[in-house]
Amino acid sequence: MKALTSFFDRMVQRYLPDAFLFAIILTIIVFLLGIGVTGSTPVEMVEYWGTGFWDLLAFAMQMSLIVVTGYILASTPFVRNILQKISTLANTPGQAILLVTFVAGVACLINYGFGLVAGALLAIHVAKRVPSVDYRLLMASAYSGFLLWHGGFSASIPLLIATDDHFLMDTIGAIPVTETIFSGFNLFIVLFLLLTMPLLNWYMMRTRDPLTNTDATAWNTEAYDGTEEAVTAESMTPAERLENSQILSMLIGILGLVFIVYHFVQNGFDLNINIVNFIFLFLGILFHRTPRRFLDSVTDAVKNVGGIIIQFPFYAGIMGMMVASGLSQAMSEWFVSISNDVTLPLFTFLSAGIVNFFVPSGGGQWAVQGPIMIPAALEIGADTAKTAMAVAWGDAWTNMIQPFWALPLLAIAGLKVRDIMGFCVLILFYSFIPIAIGLLFV
């Protein structure tokens, strides 16, 4: 393990480019594959790329707000105190790794956006308490929790096929979550990873060469200290009094809380990305107490979203080329051609892991692969619910080495993708075992 950890960390540190350059390299690869595999012309591939380039604008805004609103909420004294109390459970580097991995995993099972932010913010507070912990490995541990999201309550594919109007309704009907999220094979995978990934990350820490450790003291972990400056009323102008009015924050904050309650009463436990952002935003307004403190926090927060804003359009362009050229369909059909009723879920999982490099969106990936994999499952007699979850787990699996979803966490942590990806490669290899067992034998 020591040799493997050092090898992958060294290789990633040396050869993995910045996340933006990674997106550019993927763009070129898909462009060439589209020409070579599907027979599309260069002009057609350029058209597919440019047409799809802006398709993720709404999603990019959602993910930017996850970082911004998470920062805003975390910098309030109230939340900072909660995170500090949780962080007191860790007194040694080993305990820090175990705590962050487990909490991040549970949070991502509840909601993927919430889990990404909560894991990163807790890791920062733990790093302040245990500064001798390997900061890069700690953040990789926080990100490893994201592996569980597509087996949890915000899993887009099983939730979609459980609705009555999804696009494959005429083919498979509505599949209840008892056959997907709460199925025996999915619960096996989730519980196995939730309970053993902390131990894997702890073991990586134990086998690390002390000379390669990067203590938290070497990084800026003070970004979320939530320090507030006292404001005296005597020197305020009327405009400044409004900016420092607790009444205004209270009124708009209560209005937001009323809608949050209304949302859950009307929709049940629907913790989607929009309502998570809404909760973070209005709790941030309330807990900062004045508009001025809230706006100062916003000013600090927006510095962290540049990578998301500039990179997501490139991934949208990649998705456009993959879908419009038929490249993603060709990949999926090849895996179907070598499958039978037992192995189809496993090969579906592997194909989804490959497609996820180029279409890193659960909903978008299902739109590409669902119409191919589900008819194939029906034709050869494979389990359709397990096949659908195989796409979900393939999407989650290669997120460990696809920087797209790591961007919010990296922005909060102040790290680059190469800082954590060497550890994530080992997590990828390890997690294949329980996922494959669950899809084949459970």
Q: Give the helix proportion (percent range).
A: over 70%
Low-confidence stretches: none
Q: Report the order of strands and helices.
A: HHHHHHHHHHHHHHHHHHHHHH
Question: What is the SS-derived class?
Answer: mainly alpha
Largest sheet features:
none
Radius of gyration from the alpha-carbon trace, in angstroms = 23 Å
What do the pLDDT scores average to? 87
Q: Total helix count? A: 22
| Shape assignment | globular
| Gap between N and C termini | 28 Å
Percent in strands:
under 5%
How many strand segments? 0
Concise synopsis of the structure shown:
The chain has helices at residues 2-15, 19-38, 42-52, 57-74, 77-87, 93-110, 112-129, 135-144, 156-161, 169-172, 184-206, 238-243, 246-267, 273-288, 291-301, 306-325, 327-337, 344-358, 362-380, 384-397, 407-413, 417-441.
